[in-house]
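Reply to dn_fold:

You asked what the input looked like. This is it:
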Amino acid sequence: MDKEEQKLVAFYFPHDIGASNDPKLVDLRMSFGWKSIGMYWAIIEALHKEKEGKLPIRIITSMILDFYCQEEIRISQHIKEEAKEFEKVLYANALLIKQKGYATANRVQKNLLHRKIKSEKARESALSRWSKTAVISQEKDDMRTHSEHNANAMLVKERKGKERKGYILSLALTHWNKRNVWPSTSPTPQNGLVVDKLLPKCFKETSDLKTEWNKIAPTQQEWEDAVKAYVLEIANRNPDNDYAKHRFSFYEFIKQKNGYTKFLNR
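and this is what came back:
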């Protein structure tokens, strides 16, 4: 079992306590009995084990037939027909949805997206902690050679120390570049143009970029909140409006007043 499979096995998904009273599941239970609820949750568990939360429709069909098959007893025609009807109801009630030959469920996609966001935040938090440790280590080295510098060098070092107190520019660029396309596991937003083009990537830390970055000097939380607000604003634009195609570059976003500053205060 590789590391990815181990993560999936250890992953827990939320199961709300009122699920059995969901009208869609009540309809399922009234038509096929309590066994159908167990069948449904077994399918949901199987979908959660898949990286993208999807399985080929033929696999779902096979699972349902297997549920109806008693050990060492051939499936009768009546049971086969009920299995087919059960599968139809799952799709008709939107408990499962079809996507280009695959089957998935909205609750599965939502859970996996939540898990992905938590994983990204944990990774960024780890990078941030590592960066702070690197800064502290550098400052200790600076202190050991402090007596060798003249007054002007000391002033320059002090200014650099102040600049490091905010969120590191390289980490902000990484956070920005990850959002160049809309996540495939997320529901398609109102502005469908973001699916293939969200935020334009930026790879080079120019002197102008560093200057503008030091002017705003955001914390990690402030930066992530502002970018999140901007992405949501783009996703909710009217796709028929020409402005739906407009995107700030990284430089424009931190420099212009209707960029970072505006979305931080939303």
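The longest helix spans residues 106-144.
Hope that clears it up.
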